Amino acid sequence: MILLVNGPNLNLLGEREPDVYGRTTLAEIERMVRDACAGWNVEVKPFQSNSEGALIDFIHEHRKSARGIIINPGALTHTSIALFDCLKAVTAPAVEVHISNLHAREEWRRTSVVAGACRGQITGLGVRGYILAAEWVCAEIGARPRP
Known about the structure:
The protein has one domain: Dehydroquinase, class II (Rossmann fold). Helix content is 33%, strand content 16%. It contains five helices and five strands. Helix 2 (26-38) packs parallel to helix 5.
């Protein structure tokens, strides 16, 4: 099982700043990730919260069964040492995903506190970044694509 974790304000995807984040909703992203992982026979467990503690509790709850994590921490990317510590405490490989290119935006968005706890970061490739992360995690955990 792969955890698909989305942080603050990502529940508003599709309507929040569509010029930056596009018009794809979070439900559509969850479906795209599920479809990508289905080709590898891997289940996806999605979760979104506007609360840092709820995100950490979700990861803790599934830390023994999760084989991988795809995470878009939203604004917690830049501030959450607690989320960094949480990801470091879990053995499943994590990939950080951002729809917009953090490095082409405001200076304060260019630093990710969470990145050091992740195996990689995909930023600026739109919602396709989630699919690329799903494919990488599935391959990394040794899943076999369906024939």
